[in-house]
Structures are given as structure tokens and as C-alpha cells.
Amino acid sequence: MAYNRASAFFLIVVRFVATTNRLAHGQLFVSLSNMNFEGRLCCTTTGNCPGQGIPGVPVNITCTINGYTDVAGQGTTDVNGAFNVYVLGITGFFYGLSTIPCVATVQLPLDTVECRALNTTTGLLSSAFRRNGTAGGSMKATIVGFVRT
Known about the structure:
The protein is α+β, with helices and mostly antiparallel strands and 149 residues long.
């Protein structure tokens, strides 16, 4: 009888650990190293292209991991409005591998550039990222589309 009780207790403990473990809830510990975050900012009311690219605009890559938000990288748009920000490494628990826990953000208004559509408003443009393959051993991520907040 003691053997059955020990087996039952063991199974209860295993079930408890399995259902309270982060991995059981779709979270995976992943290290996203050597990430290239890229996109383009255009002079439209949304900041999305097509349109004339806006040069010289600071872009922040902000990541939230385990409830902690931090600026993982910063860049500036080139003459065509494109940015490419390289981030060395991001590590933490993510809710599934298809989601990258980072966003590109642009502070409004754009006082230093000539773009009436984005110079007259305040707030923040932000965009999530989607995976876009790999290049040169680095994972690439491209913006989904800016949203004004």
C-alpha cells in the first residue's frame, strides 16, 4: 500500500510542477542574439510608406521582457528614411517564438525635419516587428506598420 501512496504523491507533484511551470503556459526561454531591426519612416500622417522617406529621425528599439521595458538599441533614419538597428542580445521568457517582444518608437513632433504631416502633432509612433529571415548569421525583423499613440 505504501508503494501506491508514494506513486500517487509523486504523480500529484509532477502534475503540479507541470501546470505551474512557465513552459507549460507557452513561455519559452529564448535568447535572441544578433538581431537586425529594420524599417522605413515616411512623411505621411501615419509615418508608414509609401511616401517620401524622412532622414535624420531618431528611432528607439524598446523591448519588454518579463514585465521590464528597456531601450535595447537606437538608430537614425538614413537619407531614404530607412533604419537598421543592430541589437546584440535579448534574453528572457517569451510567449511563443512567433512574437518578438520589441517595438520601434519615434517621438513626435519631428521638429528637426521637414514633414508637415508629423511636425504638427505630439505623441509617439510605434510599430511591432515580424521575423524576416536571417542574413549573415543575424536574425532580421521588419516593422509591421506604425501606429500613433
